[in-house]
Amino acid sequence: MTRLTIIIILLFVVQEAYPQFNSIEFQKELPTVKVDQSKLVLSKKEGIDKGYFSHVANPIEKESRVLLASLPLEGFLMTSTYGYRSDPFSGERKFHRGIDLNANLSKVYSMLHGKVSSVGHDPLLGNFIKVQHGNYAAVYGHLSQIWVTKNESVLPGSVIGISGSTGKATGDHLHVTIKKGLEYINPTLFIQMLSKLSTKDELIQFLSN
């Protein structure tokens, strides 16, 4: 009787312990994605053709989504603004035709859908990439690495290179210039305008204006 009781108790313990062991042994760690909800608003419709961010999004937020536009870096900390400034080398007052963003060998992202119109090296800009977006062109300068080639199509959030300090630079940073034809545009205002667009049609109209 005692032996039978022991066998029954052992069977009960094994039956209770197995589900707990199974749930621990075979549980897979789920990937997590950091999303700043304050930076984006999703359209109610979903799908590859219909789901667009209505605000400029951080590129790490693009998981399984189609971006309307992306920031050029994961962080957006300006170290030098557009306009007149004291030249960091000569100290003279000169016009800065773009913005400088804090970076540290950081991934550089295409802000919009477009085509790479040129890549190369410039004595001032260092290694650079120029991407054409409709009537606008974005130039990314001082890169340490270039990951795209001329005539290559890119999407918002596509990695196009790595930041650096090539050319005339005091340290690692990303220089961004926006041009409409031959006219320079303040990149900050350009990005602010993008953040106000809510649909792909509005973006196309803006870039073709």
Order of helices and strands: HEEEEEEEEEEEEHH
**How much strand content do the residues show?**
25-35%
How many strands in all? 12
- Ranges where pLDDT stays below 50 over 5 or more residues in a row are 4-55
CATH homologous superfamily placement: Glucose Permease (Domain IIA)
How would you classify the helix and strand content by structural class? alpha+beta
Outline the biggest β-sheet.
Answer: 10 strands, antiparallel
User: How many structural domains can be distinguished in the coordinates?
Assistant: 1
Rg result: 25 Å
Per the CATH scheme, the topology name is: Glucose Permease (Domain IIA)
Shape: globular
Name the CATH architecture: Distorted Sandwich
Query: Helical content, roughly?
Result: 10-25%
Mean pLDDT: 75
For the record, the CATH class is Mainly Beta
The count of helical stretches stands at 3
Q: How widely separated are the two ends?
A: 92 Å
Descriptive key words:
single chain, 209 residues, alpha+beta, Glucose Permease (Domain IIA), ten-stranded antiparallel beta sheet, two-stranded antiparallel sheet, 3 helices, 31% strand
What would your notes on this structure say?
The protein is α+β, with helices and mostly antiparallel strands and 209 residues long. The protein has a single domain (37-208), classed as Glucose Permease (Domain IIA). 20% of the residues lie in helices and 31% in strands. It has helices spanning 2-25, 187-195, 200-208; strands at residues 78-80, 83-86, 93-96, 99-102, 107-109, 114-122, 126-133, 136-146, 153-154, 159-163, 173-180, 183-185. Strand 7 and strand 8 form a beta hairpin. The longest helix has 24 residues, at 2-25. The N and C termini lie far apart (92 Å). Residues 4-55 have low confidence and may be disordered. It comes from Algoriphagus pacificus.
